[in-house]
Amino acid sequence: MKNNGVHEQTVTKVLEALESIRPFLNGDGGDIELIDVEGDKVIVKLHGNCNGCPMSFSTMKLGVENTIKQFAPEIKEVVNVSD
């Protein structure tokens, strides 16, 4: 049961991180969705203008991944899944 509580705390921190960066993505006509948290890996999906944008790799590494790691240091990897 303890692991489930830790997982829920991690998911909450990741959601808070995504909410903090969502306005920047929305400003460029995009958005982000949390797909899953698997151990120390977060799976997200970029939507709108962010999906397929040439800058999406930089957005993921410099924006999304760094922000998530600030909110949830236990996360080691953030992966974007596409359609």
Could you give a quick summary of the protein structure above?
The protein has 83 residues and is an alpha+beta fold. The chain is 51% helix and 25% strand.
The domain tally reads 1
Cα-based radius of gyration, to the nearest Å: 12 Å
Order of adjacent strands in the largest pleated sheet? 1-2-3
The profile of the biggest β sheet is: 3 strands, mixed
The counted number of beta strands is 3
Number of helices: 2
Structure description:
- With 83 residues, the chain is of the alpha+beta class.
- It has one domain (2-80): Fe-S cluster assembly (FSCA) (GMP Synthetase, Chain A, domain 3), CATH 3.30.300.
- 51% of the residues lie in helices and 25% in strands.
- It is built from two helices and three strands.
- The protein has helices at residues 2-27, 56-71, and strands spanning 30-38, 41-48, 77-80.
- It has a three-stranded mixed beta sheet, with helices on one face.
Descriptive keywords:
elongated, GMP Synthetase, Chain A, domain 3, alpha+beta, about 80 residues
